Amino acid sequence: MKRILVPTDFSEHAEYALKVAAQIARKTDAEIYLLHMLELPNQTVDAVAPGSEVPEVMFYMKKAHERFEELKQQDYLSGIPVTEAVQFDRAFEGILKISKKHEIDIIIMGSHGASGFEEIFIGSNTEKVVRTSDIPVLVIKKGDENFNIKNIVFASDFTDEIKKPFEKAVEFAALFGAHIHLLMVNTPNDFKSTSAAEKIMTDFVRNYPIGTYSTHVYNETNVEKGILKFSKSINADLIGVSTHGRKGLNHFFNGSISEDIVNHASRNVITFKI
C-alpha cells in the first residue's frame, strides 16, 4: 500500500478520512494524493482549456488550492508526501480516473451516509465509488485520532468468487494485527445449520496466511441487518464486505448489500471488488 487517494470537498467528514489516511501512510510509508473535484456547468467546462482565464473557473481553482495549502500545514500530515490535484469532472468518475492514472492502492473517503429519497434518487459519491471501484475503498464515518483496528468483521457467503477480495482483507488486517471475525448471516430464504456454515468458513480460510480469527453464524431477517447487528454486538472497529459492482438495471433490481452497509452503518466500512 504505497499510494492512497483521498477525495475531498473540504468538509468535516472529508478531513476525518484524511486523518485516517495520514495514520495509514505512516504505517506503510505511503504517499497521499489529495483530490478535489470541480463539478462545473457543462458550458463552463467546455470553455476550460490550457491557459484559460474563465473568471468562475479561476476563482474556484484558487480557492481550492488555498484550502489545500491550509490542509497541508496540519500537524498530522507532517513529513508525509502529499500531492494535490483539482479536476473538472463528475466527482465519482473523476475519482476513478485518477485512481487508475496514478495506480492508487486504496481510496479513503468520508461519508455521513444517505437515506430515504436522497438514497433512492441521488445517492452519494461515496456509494458510487464503492459500487464501481476496482480497488479497496475505506469509508470513514467519524473522526478518530487513533485509527487502531483490533476487530474486523468480514461478512460473506464464502464462495470461490470471494477469494480475491478476502486476500485484500487479510492484507489490510495484517497492517494492524487485527482479529478477523468471519461472519455468515443466515436468513429465512438461505438457511444453513450452524455446523454446515462453520465448516464452509473453516474450509475457506484454510490456505490463507491469516492471523487470529473466529467464525460466527448470525440469524436475521436479511443480510444487512445481520451484519450491522453483529458488528454492534462485538463493538467492531471496521466492517469488511465485497461488492459486485453492478450497474444499470441490474443494480437497480438487485441492489447491493455493500452500498446499503456503507449508507446505513455508523461504523467504518471497507469494501473489496469481486
TrEMBL record:
Residues 1-141, 149-271 form the UspA domain. SUPFAM superfamilies: Adenine nucleotide alpha hydrolases-like. InterPro entries: Rossmann-like_a/b/a_fold, Universal_stress_UspA, UspA. Pfam families: Usp (PF00582). Belongs to the universal stress protein A family. This is Universal stress protein UspA. It comes from Flavobacterium kingsejongi. The lineage of its organism: Bacteria, Pseudomonadati, Bacteroidota, Flavobacteriia, Flavobacteriales.
